[in-house]
Design a protein that fits this description.
It contains one helix and 22 strands. It is an all-beta fold.
Amino acid sequence: MGKLTSKILPIMLCFILIFPLSFCSKDKKPFGPTTPNEWSLVPAGFMLDEDSNRVNVATYAVPELVDIDDDNDLDLFIGEWYGEIWFYRNTGSARKPEWTFVTDNYFSIDVGRSAAPTFADIDNDGDYDLLIGKSFSVGHVGPVGNIVFYRNIGTADSANFILVTDSLLSYPNMGISKPEFVDIDGDNDLDLVAGYSETDLPEGHEGLLLFRNIGDRINPVFEFVTNEYLGMAGHNLSSIFADVDSDGDLDALHTGSSIVQICDQLGTEAEPDWSCADLQTTAHSSLISHMALDLADVNGDGILDLIWGNGTTGWPSELGGTVYLFYGSWDED
């Protein structure tokens, strides 16, 4: 994309295809660093397994990339509509991954509906714990969505998960999308951001939750702050935080069934100031619905890539439950 200096170019980007994935917002600067580079995304195609078949969980793909076996490459987990988690081990390398199918029911976990997995070292013991957003349970009466917490009592290279609680949060009457654990306020512990839906209310309510960790890195205690974080509203909202533009602070990518925004952090962790823009894609017209995202350096080039999980409702059958990959790149000024 290069450095944008024209006052009208941000508006033109909304109508003219410059890159397969671009972002623009009226009266706002294009997202990304102004110098010396800008981050752009290039479609790489559907993620493939070791036999060159599309990775496909059949319905409602919620991807998560993490090095679960401590071998310095990224393994792939995908939550799905029926509450289970698929696991593909990376049998390739950090630069050239090969995702080999292992199981469609990781650790025999079944959260009921809409499993949305996230891995985070929630107790600061040096290995990844597993936290799963869910919408409700089979046979439920009223919404019982929450975050299911599995502690890793194994090691960094040999995980062993035990259930701690199926209701990590005290916030009532909600279905939870993919949770994100991140130090949002710069106090050296993990806070929690997650989308939610209060489906039992007559008018309904959907937004982005923020829970601040008032405990510590070893024993977190999540205190409710707001259900309208960053003013976000929409169905199946979720957020990813990472330093996308390599300027030393966290940026945010927000997505849901009908919204994708990318937000540049102009302030600090202690005093955030977000500038958000719409993210638009022309890679496939169906990729704008029922989305779940993750950011990771898939090909080991030091630049964040984007993986895009697809839903099913009203979708072409060949896309439901698949995962699409965009490679990140720096465009020099």
